[in-house]
Specification:
Layout: H1 2-29, E1 33-34, H2 43-53, E2 63-66, E3 72-75, E4 78-85, H3 101-106, H4 114-131, E5 147-152, E6 159-163, E7 168-174, H5 185-199, E8 217-218, H6 224-228, H7 235-241, E9 251-254, H8 259-280, E10 287-289, E11 300-304, H9 310-322, E12 336-338, H10 346-365, E13 372-383, E14 390-393, E15 399-404, E16 411-413, E17 416-418, E18 423-425, E19 433-437, E20 442-444, E21 447-461, H11 469-473, H12 482-490
Antiparallel strand pairs: 1-9, 2-3, 4-7, 5-6, 8-9, 10-11, 11-19, 12-13, 13-21, 14-20, 15-19, 15-21, 16-21, 17-18, 17-20
Helix pairs in contact: 1-8, 4-5
């Protein structure tokens, strides 16, 4: 049973970690886009679509970029990334910053606007090249002289950097401003340009940050006049920037998992796991609560393990099998033998009951140990061929102790059924004991295969006013209820 409980606990921990990991995986990896709808009649768009089909989209994840001053910054929600080789000598990076924080950042002191951003970008590019090279082991960084133009648009907060010695165009668009909002504008410009140059390496093959909401990824070409007016624009760049607005065919569909899907899937996994584990790997129960309006110790039942040694249990089985079984002693007859008819084990078993069982029961129910006494003790046998069950009944004693004499692996089914809680309580190992109020209605659950042996003890207490057994015998199995029995016991 310890092994089953350990497996149950380990599986629940695994299911919980899997649920948390699924949610974290959603935020870190998100999804991969589908390029099926990336088609257009424009020649450049056809070239982009053709080349993108042969490009492997790298694993998406949230990257933590390290700034030159040692602090870190979290980049997220990059809305679109396009990587394609074209025959030209300029590299263009487009950062379209969208979100409520853009205007607030720009209002915090854009003294010289574009000039300040360009100066900061140049300075940051040099620091990035010197100190953050370890972040991109596969990147061949440009020389400082290759940076020929960095500008920042006044109204759109768009930063464009042009450099030599490359045949690649990288365009991506940030959906959320950098955090925290209180950063100064030149820091915004330097960080954006630093990311641009790190992604623009000649043989760069690292992860590209991007996100995928359900509305899809959108490759956006905007503000063509800005590109047309630049001094360093060539014919290919002008063609690239001449696409004014995206159409429906430019949408890169997203097949990403929604957060609700991940959460509901993890929740279903936990519920199914709990159902299966409770069904096949039952928990160890130590206490049972029976329905009663009265707060009294007798409303509780207890399961205690190892109350009797396995050696004594084996001796009881051998002595009982050597004796004769009877079914004529009780109103609800069982196939049993009184322990006083088994002289081979009577003394040792009586000593165990007096020294171990009664003190334990007294401590559980807070009764004086000297006022407890064993009214009757007998060994019960449930056999699939002779008597496999016992109907619902109430015992004549105030307390009933049932000690398992063999392991549950020796039989299939069995247990003590309590209709008030609609549960079957089983004892897994020889020597385990179930103790409960004998007035609580209960019965023996059918044994489907094998033989089940129990040592049953009726325990009375002189401090409790017990109902007459003859009155209990006249009650119907369903009337009165256990609640009414409790009231009659303690409110007479």
């Amino acid at each position: 049973m310890k092994r089953r409980r350990w497996l149950y606990q380990m599986w629940m921990v695994f299911a919980f970690l899997l649920a948390v990991g699924s949610i974290l995986w959603y935020f870190s990896h998100k999804s991969r886009p589908s390029l099926r709808s990336f088609q257009s009649e424009h020649p450049l768009r056809q070239t982009l679509a053709k080349r993108l089909r042969h490009k492997q989209w790298l694993s998406a994840r949230i990257l933590r970029w390290k700034r030159w001053d040692g602090t870190s910054i979290l980049w997220d929600r990059v809305r679109a990334v396009v990587r394609v080789d074209v025959p030209q000598t300029h590299m263009t990076f487009l950062f379209h910053e969208r979100g409520p924080s853009t205007a607030r950042v720009m209002r915090q002191g854009i003294d010289v606007k574009g000039q300040k951003a360009a100066h900061a970008a140049r300075r940051h590019w040099y620091m990035w090249k010197q100190e953050v090279r370890w972040l991109f082991p596969y990147t061949v960084l440009f020389k400082r002289e290759s940076l020929i133009h960095v500008s920042q648009h006044k109204e759109t907060s768009e930063i464009c950097a042009l450099s030599k010695h490359t045949k690649r165009i990288d365009c991506f668009w940030l959906d959320r401003q950098l955090r925290p909002i209180r950063w100064r504008f030149w820091q915004e410009g330097s960080l954006l340009s630093g990311l641009a140059f790190s992604l623009g390496g000649w043989k760069w093959s690292g992860p590209i940050p991007w996100s995928s909401r359900r509305r899809g990824l959108l490759v956006r070409w905007s503000w063509p006049s800005l590109h047309m007016s630049r001094e360093h624009s060539d014919s290919n760049t002008r063609l690239f920037s001449s696409i004014k607005r995206p159409d429906k065919q430019m949408v890169i569909e997203s097949k990403g998992l929604s957060l609700w899907g991940v959460f509901l899937g993890a929740l279903c996994l936990l519920l199914v796991s709990r159902f299966l584990l409770v069904r096949f790997l039952p928990l160890r129960r130590d206490m049972i609560v029976f329905p009663s309006e009265l707060e009294h110790p007798l409303k509780y039942g207890y399961i205690r393990r190892g109350c009797m040694s396995k050696t004594l249990c084996s001796q009881c089985l051998r002595a009982a099998e050597a004796g004769s079984w009877t079914k004529e002693r009780h109103t609800q007859a069982t196939q049993d033998q009184r322990i006083d008819t088994l002289p081979a084990i009577y003394d040792e078993l009586t000593a165990c009951l007096q020294k171990d069982i009664l003190p334990l029961v007294a401590s559980l129910y807070r009764f004086p140990a000297e006022q407890l006494g064993i009214k009757e003790a007998f060994i019960v046998k449930y056999d699939e061929h002779v008597q496999c069950k016992l109907d619902l009944h109430r015992d004549a004693s105030i307390l009933t102790c049932s000690v398992a004499l063999n392991d549950r692996a020796d039989y299939v089914g069995g247990g003590t059924y309590f209709p008030s809680i609609e549960e079957v309580i089983t004892l897994e190992r020889a020597g385990d004991m179930l103790v409960h109020c004998g007035k609580i209605q209960h019965g023996g659950y059918p044994v489907k295969k094998g033989v089940r042996y129990l040592l049953v003890c009726f325990v009375d207490c002189a401090a409790v006013d017990i109902l007459d057994h003859r009155e209990i015998a006249t009650w119907n199995s369903a009337e009165p209820s256990d609640r009414e029995v409790m009231k009659r016991l303690f409110l007479r």
